[in-house]
Amino acid sequence: MLSAYSSIGGNFQITLNSASYTFTSSYTTLYSSATTFKVSIVSSDYASATTMWLLKNGTLVGINYAGFNYTGAAAVQFYQGSRLFTAWGTQTVFGQQLTTDYIYATAYFHSTGTTPVTLGANTFTLTNYAANSLPETVPSCAGAGITLTTASMSIGTPNGANYPFPFDVDVVGSSTGGMMGNVTFTITSQITSIIVA
After folding, report:
1. pLDDT digits over 114-169, tens only?
2. Domain ranges of the chain
3. Helix (H) or strand (E) holding 91
């Protein structure tokens, strides 16, 4: 994602069981070297911006928040206890799984048409998808049973990018079994700004 888009901002609501988070968040890549990304994250959940250093293989190197530096295991612990990349991680995971496993498998979703969109200097087309029927039970590679009661998504690739991204996501449902046990979830997100890397 960081290689494809140097900046993304959006509005998010994520609910897992009774824990609900509603926030705005944006990240901006401050620099990208052959091995490392330096990223600034601004979130309505946090009083200060956070700077993260990530290797391109996904390893978290360090975090600076409110003047405090965290490296190694301390950085990983800080990150795991935060919601800094929750929006992007959730959006990417659900976007990839919904896209690969469900949306492009016509047994579960169908296209409802396209919508032109302009975000900053980017004008492109979103393809809209909806579940074939609701509630819809879909398979999961993690062994969980997933039932969707609301399911729609709009996916697009801005000009100059080669990585499709879920721009509007509205998913409500429940999961039984698997690694997380019994979970109810709501994921609603809307990307409001994007810059191609």
Report:
1. 999 998 888 899 999 998 999 988 877 666 778 999 989 898 889 888 888 888 98
2. 5-196
3. helix 86-97
